[in-house]
Amino acid sequence: MDWGTDLWDQYDIIEKHTLSGLDLVEKYVKFVKERTEIEQNYAKQLRNLSKKYYPKRGSKDETECRVSSFQSFTEILNEMNDYAGQRELVAEDMMMNICIELTKYLQELKQERKTVSLGTGGAKKAQQTLEVSYKQLDSSKKRFEREWREAERSAAYAEKTDQDINATKADVGKAKQQAHMRSRIAEECKNDYAAQLQKCNKEQNQFYFNDMPVIFNKLQDMDERRGQRLADGYVLFSDTEKHVMPIIDKCLEGIHKAGCNVNQRNDSLALVEQHKSGFERPGDIEFEDYSQGINRTSSDSSLSTPKGPLELLGKNRNKKSWLLKKSKLSPSTILPSTPSPKFGRDPLSYCLKEINKTVKPRISSFRTLRRSPTVTEDFGHLPPEQRRKRLQKKRDEIAKELQKEVDQSEALEKMRDVYEKNPQMGDPASLAPQNSQTAQNIERLRGELAKYEVRSLFSFRDPDGAQSDEGTPDHSQAIYAEFDDDFEEEEEEEEVEEEEPTVAIGNCTAMYNFPGASEGTISMQEGEVLDVVEEDKGDGWTRVRRTNGDEGYIPTSYVSIALNK
């Protein structure tokens, strides 16, 4: 079935139908365009949202991002940013493949419809031609009718004149001549009308059986192509969305995976590893019995804070060197490097007891208490555990930079060899300044690396990060207090006493050699078996004893420990 055969008389309906089809294409293009604007705005808002909550460099959240929950949240923000990119891709594809393409096709259809309807050989032209033929036929028909009636009247008048006895011969001849002329004119009009009728019928047949069916069929083909192209646009609307679905599913899967990657246990362990100081908790504060005769100055207050043993022994430079070592947080950090036997099993308790007997406490100024520790090159201001990590990190950075300089030096040497073999490529002497500078950098970095390796080694041996310098105490540390002469006398008396050997709680086997050069440590050889006297209390040192009675501290990581059950 086609329009040219079945709708030959429905030109107005066909014209209205094709026009509404073009309007539908235009509406769909506008619909998709507005959809792309929504997608673009949605993607923009998603990107702004992700950027708003993404941790900025240098912010407090940047350090917290090491925690798995923060890392997962960052992954979610990244996935949402990728998701926004997919929404932008949807908008871009719809705009390019639907809006722009259909707009171009719509213009082509409008031009084609205009040509079929109004152009040469179009429906309007054919209809105008047929209407002209109808007018000519009607005009010739009316003329024939008018002239035939005039011929009939002339013939009747001539006959009447011929029968009139009073009419002259001339009158009769004239009337007959007029009737004959009118009859001849009427016959010509008849022939003209017949010819015009034949022509009109031919044009009418051409119009209804040839011209208009062809035009209607063209309009039908155009409308069907328009419908199919619009249907393809509908399908493309869906396919564009389906095309990004796998990537969107990956984004959602990434968000799901980020949620599953949260490990609070590991976060807790990482927090401990990052902020572990290595110090022990402070011991109990001893009761100060003022009834025993301890003098107090008039400025003393019961709210004053008792001094730690290292703070109070700061001016007593002639005592054992391990008492003079720096401590940033707690006196208990001196234990790994202070295993002097004269204080018995708990030297810290002994110091606290003796200090409480002799010290005249006084209140320090708030300005001094608020003073921050001085940041030093060897990170001595940090707790032992953090100091060890920072030294290790610094050493790795220097080693990495040194390797880069070494690689550059090797590259310069190869380039110099090439220049020597092929002088046309360059002058070997031009590389001398770079070689010299690289050699200086290598020498400097090797010196720094050796320095930090020594410091890192001492950080293992001496967990409080202090130097055994008996000449100058650290003035940036706590407030010094004075001692009575009784402390020195009682200390000398205590040196005479013998300490009873501590019962071993297990044994250990040395995995590496350890020189034991620092005071309070003990040397050991790989494979040597030692008795464990005191466990590692979190500072990285274990107290051991040989069979000959020698005791000291060794790095916990250097031995394999088996404790008694």
UniProtKB/TrEMBL annotation:
Domain REM-1: 381-458
GO CC annotations, alphabetized: cell cortex; cytoskeleton; plasma membrane
Domain F-BAR: 1-267
Biological-process GO terms, alphabetical: endocytosis; signal transduction
A Pfam family hit: FCH
Domain SH3 residue range list: 503-564
Keyword annotations: Cell membrane, Coiled coil, Cytoplasm, Cytoskeleton, Endocytosis, Lipid-binding, Lysosome, Membrane, SH3 domain
Gene3D superfamilies, alphabetized: 6.10.140.470, Arfaptin homology (AH) domain/BAR domain, SH3 Domains
Coiled-coil region(s): 388-455
Protein family per UniProt: Belongs to the FNBP1 family.
Name assigned to this protein: Thyroid hormone receptor interactor 10a
Organism: Gadus morhua (Atlantic cod)
Lineage: Eukaryota, Metazoa, Chordata, Craniata, Vertebrata
